[in-house]
User: Fold these one by one.
Assistant:
Number 1:
Amino acid sequence: MNVLLIGCGGIGAIHAEKIVSGGMTLAAVADTDAARVTAIARKYGATAYTDAEKAMRHPGLDAVGIATPTTTHLKLVEAAARAGKNIFCEKPLAGSLAECEKIVKAADKMGVKLFVGHVVRYFQEFDTIRDQIKKGAIGKPGFIRTFRGGIIPSGWFRDYKLSGGVTLDCCIHDFDWIRYAFGDVTRVFSQHLQRTTPTPMDYSMTTLRLKSGMLAQVTGSWAHPSGFRVKVEVCGDAGMIQYDSGEAPINTNVRQTSAGAPTMIVPASPVPVSPYQLEWEDFAAWCTTGRKPRVTAQDAVEAVRIGLAALESAKSGKPVRLN
Ligand SMILES: NC(=O)c1ccc[n+]([C@@H]2O[C@H](COP(=O)([O-])OP(=O)(O)OC[C@H]3O[C@@H](n4cnc5c(N)ncnc54)[C@H](O)[C@@H]3O)[C@@H](O)[C@H]2O)c1
């Protein structure tokens, strides 16, 4: 499968590596930043473009990967759909439900496949937790607590209008996984401490009520002095499952300043096949064999719906009902 990857920043560099290790061909790469795109193109022997729409005309492409800031997803998905290419788009699908709908419509209209990178579904730890609970390991689950975050990322992430802050950009992983593992969300209540001065930080806590009656508490932090950590705890009537990324692999966290630090820290995984590779393999299998992937475009829309409801709740101070 010949892939064009658009966006060679923090996550784009990881996607480039995983496209290749997953057995696909990175035929072309595009980024408005000439130095970045040239470096990735050289590393993988791909053709470099600074104009994404021009890159979509590269001969022999089967799919387009989009790893650019969230506000650019709509325009790039529409262009890729017009070009008739299957699409892998990073999460959050978009920053508004109206944009999400346009994205889904654009793909449907052109009959192309739209996959969204909700990678936590492919993290082996999360998959094992879901699996164990489905097998009854902790009886009937009642409560979920998740934590995700660390240092505040730099660049466009700090413009909360562009990124949606930690709640939409980061907690969306947990919103999606909770829906995937435990079903639909009916009510959302959230508070956040979101600021740009004197030092930028964003910390949020969101309570979800699920259709099943379960309660979930999702904490997101872009307020830590360094590092990145993920925690999950699920309590059932016969036991508990807990995971803390800080206790699994060996971790060294050094205090970092923004200068020279990556724009966003992507969690490391000690397992042999990276979840970022697994999601590309799932997308490729959908494109080549028709096997349905773990994530649907509608799942991605629902995750944005929960994230936006959390932001609305934080603004109004009131819970938001869904469904
Ligand atoms: N799944 C994950 O674990 C994960 C982690 C980090 C980021 N993300 C998501 O991936 C997306 C990108 O995030 P990032 O951390 O890589 O950001 P980044 O700022 O590090 O990189 C974005 C890149 O896109 C390029 N770009 C911007 N507009 C462009 C355009 N119109 N055409 C071509 N190139 C363009 C920029 O020059 C930059 O190199 C975001 O939606 C983010 O939320 C997902």
Number 2:
Amino acid sequence: MKKKQDFKVLLISVKEKLTNMGCENPPLGLLNIAGYLVAKDVIPKKNIKIIDTYYDDPITEIRKFKPNLVGISTITPFYLLARKYATIIKNEFPEVKIILGGSHISSDSTVLDLPFDLGVIGEGEETFLEIIEYFQKNFVSREKDLKAIPGIIFRTKKRKTVLTLKRPLITNLDSIPILDWSFLPRARTFFDQTILSRNSYISCKSVSLYTSRGCPYHCTFCAYNNVWGMSKVRFFSTKYFGESIYKWYWEEGVEAFCILDDTFATTKNRVKELIEELRQKQLLGKIYFYKIFIRANLVDEEMSRLLEILGVTSVFIGIESGSQKVLDFLKKKSLRLTEVRKCIKLLGDRDIKVMGSFMFFSPGEGRADIKKTVKFIKWFAKQRNAIDVNVCITTPYPGTEIWEMEETKLLSVDRERYLKLVQIKSDNQQEEIFYLNRLTKEECLKIWRKVVKISSNLEKKWLLIQNKSRYVDKVKSLWNKVGVFLKS
Ligand code: B12
Ligand code: SF4
């Protein structure tokens, strides 16, 4: 039995060192969990450490920190890497408990591989708190006790997997403390971000946050509901939002905020309330929001105006397909291409830039559908406010509707093969992924390379504008200096 003051927890965010997938982003889930444990006085702050395999080597860190318990967070594409690390840790430190959490185990909650002692399904704060309290008091776990903790998966002595009762979701999200960035080295939290506004680039300090958990939609490919449940969207209060922004603006000089909500701006009232909160705190007009996830069908004239007032400079939209038939399947008839076009135009009128995301090789997608998507991408890339074409290959994750389909049945039979197929190991890995439609691999690759090219051409266009704008800025500032010199 360890005293509370001596019990140490190491939290590891496992991902590959990929440069173009947001792997450098801080692990918000682990920050939430760490902050929650400290706020509830379960463990002193100095006894929790968060590391990230994008930057750190977990084995070196464990040897230095000597934790009693390790918590690992990962998504399905990086699960095999997480399991590899867990196996090494277990071999070298058999007495250290290893707990797995995050969207992979929350989605694939029927199997708990051997190196892991426990898995946490879904929202982690309350469940992890109970697990820590348990292991602070007990060195060895008893099946009867574990069964009483909702939201976990564990193995019995006879190697039977037990899934305990579902953990109810946190009703008051404000009970989770505001993100405490001091758990991480500064260089990993506040990034320099170039914000594109009125076609000129402004360089600001930026940070990520989120303002809600959940999404009102149920797209067939999305695994979010395994993490947050099929409940209605839960919001952090506007006061919580305002206080977070106020703190980072005044204490850290942050001017740009990336909101990572599953779907931001689900209602106009919510956006109006956020605007009002910022107005009261005298922050409106001083800060920007960029790369926020929104739904095109929710953007009308008023919503685009509200987003502009809030300070949104760019949004990320899941367009997915240029074929209405495929889009109906992917988004369960909740989005029309006419709405997408209208949304892009409306946002363009307010100079809000758009990053469009597209999915290829979905079940039932034929050549004609793909042609329509390529055509749509070309149209999109020509829009004055289109700044990014994000293309991805439809990948079925456990717990999604696509996972249950005939086309994916074979994948679920051979779990190890599946995990290898979806593993993302390099920046170009997507070319290796399987295809759920009936086209040949060669055909798919040809199309894939074509759309990747459109995407990189658009990127080049904006890089050129960025460089030009920097050059003009330099000339202007030089000119001003000459003016000052001449006057003096
Ligand atoms: C924002 C986001 C992104 C952003 C930023 C990612 C980042 N690293 O910060 C971007 C756009 C870059 C992105 C990219 C990708 N993403 Co993403 N992303 C999300 C999104 C919308 C929110 C993630 C988030 O920050 N949530 C907020 C925090 C608080 O939640 P959390 O991390 O899950 O943590 C909670 C619990 O899971 C749990 N928990 C987590 N870890 C641990 C550990 C322990 C020990 C415990 C006890 C508990 C626990 O407790 C936490 C608090 O309650 C989710 C959807 C969702 N809601 O999960 C998809 C999601 C995680 N992404 C997904 C995918 C597939 C990807 C990509 C592979 C897509 C692609 N092909 O490009 C890449 C991978 C890149 C990467 N670096 O991870 C999938 C994962 C599916 C799966 N089965 O694992 C999700 C679920 C969406 C989906 N498609 O269904 N993503
Ligand atoms: S709108 Fe986005 S977050 Fe919501 S279900 Fe669809 S893909 Fe998932």
Number 3:
Amino acid sequence: MRDLAERIKVIGISRIEESLRILEQKPEIISLGAGEPDFPAPKNVVNAAKKYLEKGYTHYAPLQGKIELLEALEKKLKKENRINASKEEIIVTCGSKEAIFLAVSTLVNPGEEVIIPDPGYIAYKPIVEFLGGKAVSLKLREEDNFEVHPEELKKLINKRTKLIIINSPSNPTGTVLKKKTLEEIADIAIEKNLFILADEAYEKLVYDDAKHISIASLNGMKNYVITTQTFSKTYAMCGLRIGYAVAPENIIKEMKEFKICTTLAAPTAFQLAAVEALKGSKKYVEKMRKEYNRRRKMLVKRLNQIPKISCIKPEGAFYAFPNIGELKMSSEKITQFLLEKAKVIVIPGTEFGKYGEGFVRLSYATAYEKIEEAMNRIEEAIRKL
Ligand SMILES: Cc1ncc(COP(=O)(O)O)c(C=O)c1O
């Protein structure tokens, strides 16, 4: 057989997660590896999806998305994110992952640099590199609560820099960027004439006093920012694959062109079900958030009771990112150790970039009782070390 394309080398990155997913099928193993809600999608959304499928909405949707959804999103963005975007400035995608891919395709030339958070969501680096760009890690530090440090960000910028990716609330750290930090990032983008991709997949999952703020809503930022959001996490609709991007019209127009080469359109009936999600009651969303919050408090408390493990309290998303450095084992080793001795799946911090070494990610998108049992097992295994 002839060689495969060179670019396969940039997408070997999530193999660990993949193999852990296979192990999840074993009943004795508890997985804290999940990156998706354990709740089913809301009933009104499921009913709407069924209704539209039965009504025959089984054809392609327009490239940019169904008009009903674009209109509902226009309202949502104004009301909930203070982003004043017109319908022409929104594109519906197959999950926000596609929105990120289309945005990077539209903005970044081969050889240009994209600053990504590290530790950060695993998809950024391969997407940038797949498209010929260079991913440059912005080190996020535990002592800063994994906030972006504007001065450090500035130091990474050179004439090849084109785009800065920010993610708040963050996967994997759970950090919610403060308004002051966002303002400083905004000032840097304006001063250096750079685009910002704001990945807001977990916008509704914030706890305690944390507030989610869209950087695109800050004064003068609209022309610099591509915001990506999704129905996956807020409405537990991961498998329905409905996300979207909001950006200046010329960018959306080009993303639309690229969409011809990717998915053409997001699923028609599920776009209409997403309209139902936006228009329906938000009680279910709040119920899920409250339950995540209950689990978060217990998980972080339990982690901090284990010798040689410490965990800062994450303010958003559904992940804890404890420091395991004192155990004197690499993130991969401790992941393997916990799988063998505690029969618990966690994700090594290095999956999220080189600065994730010394940490592991635990997801609390799993039943409370399961998390409790997992913590009993982890504590026992580590105390025996
Ligand atoms: C930070 C972040 N962004 C984007 C996504 C993509 O989600 P989706 O494509 O389902 O919208 C995920 C999924 O885990 C994520 O964690």
Number 4:
Amino acid sequence: MPFSADRLALLLGTWDGGEGPRWRRLADRLDALVQAGTLADDLQLPTERALARRLGLGRGTVAAAYDELGHRGLAVSRQGSGSRVRRPAGAPPGPRGTSAMFATLGGSPEGTIDLSLAETRCIEGTRAAIAAIDPRWVTAHVDGTGYLPAGLPALRAALAGWLQHRGLPATADSIVVTVGAQQAISITTQVLCPAGSAVLVEEATYPGALEVFRRLGLRVVSIPGDGGGPDPSALEALAARLRPAMVYLIPVGNNPTGMVLSPARLDALAAVLARTGTPVLDDRTPAPLAPPALNVPHLATRLPAGQVVTVGSASKVAWAGLRTGWLVGAPGFVREAVAARIAADLAPPLTSQALVAALVPHLDVMAEQARAEVAKARRAAIDELASRLPDGVVAPTDAGAWLWLQLPGADAVRLTETAERHGVLVTAGPVFSAEGRLRDRLRIATVAEPAEVRTGIQRLTQAWEASGDLARPRREAAMLVI
Ligand SMILES: Cc1ncc(COP(=O)(O)O)c(C=O)c1O
């Protein structure tokens, strides 16, 4: 049975943006899906006719894209049995998929060092703060039915205070507690973006958000940028052409680049958004990992009320296992978000919320400790890379729990696969790109113990040498830009 054209259309997401003939853009997107393992080896692709009908294309366009895939060695066609995926020789068994970075959420194979997941560990300060919570505080909230769709009032009030002190004019009523920032992104997208509408994202962005956008059948297009973030005039042009339903930005500690937008760039982007009126999702999840001095104003302070939804989470600052995040929006949006959340899960778990409410007064201290832990792992990664990397460029990283590497001439997808066989997991650039680009980029998470990070990077550089991209190591030529 061929793979369904409907499902493939969902996975394809945004192939239609960008330059060049349509057949080639379609082939590029299919290529990225095969390389990432989303389309498993031997999978039978939809018939040309079915996919053409589903995508509203001529059959010849799909045929040319399948042919191109064949030329690239990623598909084989047999008379009468259509086209089947051929994953490159040596590729690990799929499917790691567009969710490649989440493939090891349940634990990685024994002996493997996982530098692909960027969730901070539960730091000592968080453990101590949890241990110090009076159990009566939690049992005091074990009351009523336990269904509070907007969240526990004590937590909403505590968060409002903390967010105000971080510069966001939040009130308890403007907050909906969610199961992590991930659910906040999902709910916000469901409310703001009708199926088939366009969403604009940064050139490198959080894959968990891309996954939500694709599954909701949205067209995801990245905003061309430069070293300082998305280009405001490119944003303006795309907004005029595509009339997007939402722009998704991670202004502080972008995942994966670690970049913090400058106040000037943030203002320039806000000025465009004010003119176009496009709704914005301002994802501040990684912000606590940025030095406080780098935190730029929230977009909600630069745009009319009602245009911005701000999302945050206890994951980076306290612990991801608490599964507690939030969204902050205008009254009308909050009403719709609560309705959408009721359909998803009725209400967030109360006991976790009670714990987080008790942790809120300690969040700033915990964030400081989390930054110190990440800094140690980062230093270890940078030192190890500096002594081993020949021509890689570690792009300047302002914040975040990761390093973003440019590997001139290397194929990061192939490298991650070789690295996995050498016992280390890292994440290839295309996972972070709406269009499956950034093949010469690699993200290394810096949340493990420094010694483990060092061993992981040793394995990575061995893999790089083995992959053939690093044929002649020239250690003295290290180019590290931090
Ligand atoms: C930018 C960004 N947004 C959202 C999330 C999801 O966070 P949570 O664990 O709160 O669901 C992450 C997690 O890595 C992230 O980096």
